[in-house]
Amino acid sequence: MSNGSAVESRIAELGLELPAVAAPVAAYVPAVVTGSWVHTSGQLPFVDGQLPAAGKVSASGAAGTVSPEDAHELAARAALNAVAAVKEAVGDLDRVVRVVKVVGFVASDPGFTGQPGVINGASELLGRIFGDAGVHARSAVGVAVLPLDAPVEVELVAEFR
């Protein structure tokens, strides 16, 4: 916690640490500021530069799939990575007035319909980090595959002062 921000103190109280922003895996930047808005690119659930799990999310428990519970935790990790991108873009997380919109993508087994529960991992973490300012509009979308075979990807839009 380099700048003593209240938001970063809450992150530490949760037993978490803001990670370094992941290097883009294609031709984009992690976040863009326009006016008083910061838009993050989709963030994968990297931990120390590695995906802790890969594959499609399924409730079946089939080999090679990711459980909804594990995907819920991965969505929280992807959201934390998005928060790190916000910090890099605006300098101080205490400047965030509101998390406005979250879009979560879930690489889903064809019969899986629990995308909202998976992306709750991201939404719940943002609420714990930002309090009322972390309550947001959201989409939870099932997709066939994500970059690097990640199970989840999360992007967000935040307003800052």
UniProtKB/TrEMBL annotation:
Residues 8-159 form the Endoribonuclease L-PSP/chorismate mutase-like domain. CDD domains: YjgF_YER057c_UK114_like_1. Coiled coil: none annotated. It holds the Pfam family YjgF_endoribonc. InterPro entries: Endoribo_LPSP/chorism_mut-like (IPR013813), RutC-like_sf (IPR035959). SUPFAM superfamilies: YjgF-like (SSF55298). PANTHER family: ENDORIBONUCLEASE L-PSP_CHORISMATE MUTASE-LIKE DOMAIN-CONTAINING PROTEIN, ENDORIBONUCLEASE-RELATED. This is LysR family transcriptional regulator. It comes from Kocuria rosea subsp. polaris.
